[in-house]
User: Fold this.
Amino acid sequence: MKVSLAQSHPVYKEGRHHHGVTPGSMQEKWNLKHDTSIFITDHTQASSHRKFLRRWNQLSRLQRSIVYAVLVIIITVLVLLYSSKFRDENVNKSDKDKVDPEPVKNVSLVKEPIAAPAAIVQPVKTIIKSEHNERPTFTGPTTERQVAVVQSFKHAWKGYKEHAWGHDNLKPVSGMASDWFSLGLTIVDGLDTAYIMGLKQEFEEGKQWIIDQLIFTKNKDVNFFEVTIRVLGALLTNYHFTQDEMFLEKAKDLGDRLMAAFSSPSGIPYSDVNLGTRMAHAPEWSHYSTTAEVTTVQLEFRELSRASGNPVFEDAASAVSEKIHQLPKKHGLVPIFINPNTGHFLPHATITLGARGDSYYEYLLKQWLQTGKTINYLLDDYMTAIEGVREFLAKRSSPNKHLFIGELSAGSESFNPKMDHLTCFLPGTLALGHANGLPDWHMKMAEELLYTCYLTYAAHPSFLAPEITHFNLASATDDMYTKTADSHNLLRPEFVESLWYMYQITGNTTFQDWGWQIFQSLEKYAKVPNGYTSLANVKSEKPLQRDMMETFFLSETLKYLYLLFSDDRYIIDLNKYVINSEAHPLPIHKN
Ligand code: DMJ
Assistant:
């Protein structure tokens, strides 16, 4: 209860106040001088305070000294405790700055992104391993967003069919065709997407082209890795889905010819193979093969052996992984070049989870899963490598501490704060590992990286990511920036791929919303009358068009978007399938 000072204070009640009263005793003088109770408006509190002062004054000098000493000791102890806690917090903070989570803050953005934290904090549901092996049935789109993606696929396929049928790529702006390996790449790479989308007509016309036209006898060099992931992988998936022996026969013929790549002194594959002459060699510009290329054929060669009953394919490809397992590494991290003659890495080559390094790490985990988690060294190498990523490559940007994965430069091994869009495959792979029992911090890293990848889209007026993003490590206004030379966009899949993994594993629909934003940008900027085109500069409000439709746009980007927008998270069930680096699902085996 509050009453007015004049009514309530004992001093006033007694007709005295500290300006005009002549105090009697010394104690009264002291009481007046130290009377803090003037700010208290309660009788009881005031009188107990006066009692306390009276008692205090009654204490001897010795007793008062003891009380003072006890107080000093208590205060000293409290100060010491507080300062050590403060120091611990700061130590932990600098440790955390390496990788561990901190609340994500938004950078200044041209468009408003959908916030991450609220979405990400949903509990992770670890998917349960199931044993059944029946093939999936695909009944077509069930949501409006899926219908929109199917329309995009049909549009791309139609443009390709009209202007580039049987060639590797469509140039959708000029309406021309272009060839790389002359293997009808867009048809072969995109065919299982048509199957998954329930597009029977497109699937049948593509299949007929493969029956009639796809041959491997031309005297022409192809890239061993690209043809393995795009063509061999696709043939095996289509065989698995349809059980049509034609696909397996084509796969066996191709696999047989690709085996020439393993004919090096070390067994580490050469980069180029002539499918017609069955001769393989290093690229013209180097003696070296690319590490990610020679380690990203094992899922396909193993599946070819399992489907055909011929072990030679799996044996040759597994031997590569085993050899690389034996090589010294930097805490599991590998240089991006390897010599097929000596079987050794190029010392001090760049270390990166982007171009030429990425899928080495991806296939360690996926091979382990493909073989029913029975090959321990693959898991060991993966675990060590991810620890190496945390130790040497994962850093936080300034000022908002976004987690990103940088590189170690060739030669000096100095840290380079740049991240390829290709690296955005990593959140999906980390989440897949976590869903299969790997540590919680892998998932935390996945969540944070996925958000950083999202920001690489949201930071541009086109809401599309550049090929390479650079990060500031100290005293900057923006966390990330894009150099003009790196500002192109090839309609790559890695971010939407990771969104799909995270969606299937967590059920969190915010990942669908992020994907929908990206899809709308693709529709707005990349769609042209004859298909979808790569873009020259995502920093522009009107990005220039590059006149190229990459095959992975149909094989991967549209496939992952279609899967992402499904209400049924398990159209392709990660308990049963391992997805190759070009988005072709292959069955998981027991060993
Ligand atoms: C695809 O061809 C494959 O995913 C490859 O492993 C690297 N990335 C491209 C698409 O970006």
Summary: The pocket of 1-deoxymannojirimycin is lined by residues 359, 422, 492-494, 552, 581-582 (CB under 6 Å). Confidence is low (pLDDT under 50) at residues 1-44, 83-111, 117-132. The chain has one domain: 96-587.
